[in-house]
Amino acid sequence: MDYRLLADRYGTPLYIYDFDYMTSRYETLKNAFEGKKSLVAFALKANSNLSVIARFAALGAGADCVSYGEVKRALIAGVPKYKIIFSGVGKRDDEITGALNDDILFINCESEAELDRVEAIAQSLAKPARISVRVNPEIDAKTHPYISTGLKENKFGVDIPTAKRLYIRAKNSPWLEPVGIHFHIGSQLTDLTPIAEAADKVAELARSLIALEIDLKFFDAGGGIGVTYKDETPFTPSQYAKTIAQAINGLDLTIVCEPGRFLTAGGGVFLTRVLYEKRMGDKRFTVVDGAMNDLVRPALYNAYHRVEAIGKSGGESLCDVVGPVCESSDFFAKNISLPSVDRGDLLAVHTAGAYGFTMSSNFNTRRRAAEVAVENGADRLIRERETYDDLLASEVKLLNAAR
What we know:
Elements: H1 3-10, E1 14-18, H2 19-32, E2 38-43, H3 50-59, E3 62-65, H4 68-76, E4 84-86, H5 93-102, E5 106-109, H6 112-125, E6 129-134, H7 160-171, E7 176-182, H8 192-211, E8 218-220, H9 237-247, E9 254-257, H10 261-264, E10 268-280, E11 283-288, H11 297-301, E12 307-309, E13 317-322, E14 331-338, E15 346-349, E16 370-375, E17 378-383, H12 388-402
Parallel strand pairs: 1-16, 2-3, 2-9, 3-4, 4-5, 5-6, 6-7, 7-8, 8-9, 11-13
Antiparallel strand pairs: 1-10, 10-11, 10-15, 12-15, 13-14, 16-17
């Protein structure tokens, strides 16, 4: 991939996505479930560009959505409504209404209060709601605390006794149709043991519910399959699929998995251009035109991304790669060995295809980056770089109206 050519053509900072890589990742995971009823539902929160979603939709993927905005993105990108799942801890009434009117596969409920609202809105629409309940199995995923979701101190889901009670209630309601059971214990998981433990606990609950004649159809194991950023050794898709299949052995359920990072992270590069080199005593700073508003993971999670100086070698020394935002947390890497660089040189921040652009912002009134897809050797723009007019238009209109 010619980063210099893409930088010249589209400018920097820039997100570049390898669609061939993403296609291969999807097919590898889907094939791991061969012989089993399964649905791979892409987690839009990882990368919500419409062209990315459309690529997975064309391959047969569903969509895991955590806002109604993501549901709309999935529908626009061509994901069939019967492959869309709406999750998330807090859903507004208008979001629930929209999802019911769109007739998606099911709404994943994460509390009794939320189930109350889904039932009430379904009744008001005279449209029974297909639902699942997110079970919090009290399993420590041993991942970063900000992306751990399977413990009682996390805000997600309900405990097993509560889940069982909610399923019985749903079975007896004319406006609720319990069709699935769901769990998700965290992101960037590289150890199968907690996944196996969680799957076994939730499968045991599923068996007890089926014995009560609750007609479950979907066993949703969530996402969280880890990737290699530095030296992690994740489990394989086949190991993952085997683990989930073993947990539900003997049950006639469709396995749902909701990968995001696994499908897109390694296929993304964030390209940024060097502005200056700066030294403070023995400390070296490489200042670039990208910033934490573009890629917040290092600032938010102290996450590692490999940084490569394109076309440079030799003269390496330790440096911090930092951006222009007025925060000390505005960095992409600290104390990494990097060749000597000059103004205009390019740095590639690797494994940036997940939780990169989708978590970006306009902090410091910075324009969000452009996004480019590369497929079969050809590149194309899939999101234009924002302009200042884009950022300010609505406020200018209101300001002028008030004058």
